[in-house]
Amino acid sequence: MVAIRRLVLDVLKPHDPAMVELARRVAAIDGVAGVNLSVVEIDREVENVKLTVEGDEIDYAGVRECIDEFGASIHSVDELACGELLVEAGETPQD
Question: Where does 19-69 have alpha helices with state H?
Fold first, then answer.
């Protein structure tokens, strides 16, 4: 099976636990080399965040399980990169 190297997720999470804890837990998953968590929108009870994960062989099921344990949910997979080389998305006329 070809390894997942980059995963970008749109995640809806409660305010607690804090983003720092979610980022640290995801970063501790096997195959994850780094995590970036950015706030997209905050509301009274929840935060919409963009979670970017990079590594040599990201365990998607492990990331999903970690997010679930935080009481959060994945809205969408916004970007996914697999293979030996990380390929950046090219520009299209829609951009």
Answer: 19-27, 60-69
d(CA 67, CA 12): 9
pTM score of the predicted model: 0.89
Rounded Cα–Cα distance for residues 35 and 89 (Å)? 19
Give the span between the Cα atoms of 52 and 73, in whole angstroms.
Answer: 15
Domains of the chain: 4-82 (3.30.70.1340)
pLDDT single digits (tens) 52-67: 999 999 999 999 999 9
Q: Of 42, 62, 52, give the one whose Cα is nearest residue 10.
A: 52
